[in-house]
Design a protein that fits this description.
With about 60 residues, this protein is mainly β. It has one domain (about 5-55). The chain is built from one helix and five strands; from the N terminus they run βββββα. It has one helix at about 50-55, and strands at about 5-10, 20, 35, 40, 45-50. It has a three-stranded antiparallel β-sheet, with no helix packed on it. The protein has a two-stranded antiparallel sheet with strand order 1-5. Strand 3 (about 35) and strand 4 form a beta hairpin. The longest helix has 5 residues, at about 50-55. The termini are close together.
């Protein structure tokens, strides 16, 4: 069994393709995320925990 890894997901569509909306997010500004798949923008993200082996496809 591999170690657990936390991934952030879009709270609207569940996509893993979610990123901080600005390089200043979390530094000069509060954390804000953007999902290009569904257009979500906001401070809330989901978080899932998976085995590292699942990510590598083993």
């Amino acid at each position: 069994m591999g170690k657990k890894v936390k991934l952030i997901v879009c709270p609207v569509c569940g996509s893993l393709n979610i990123r901080k909306s600005s390089p200043f997010s979390g530094w000069l500004l509060p954390d804000e995320y953007a999902c290009p798949d569904c257009g979500y923008r906001g401070p809330i993200v989901g978080e899932i925990e998976v085995d590292e082996d699942e990510i590598k496809g083993e």
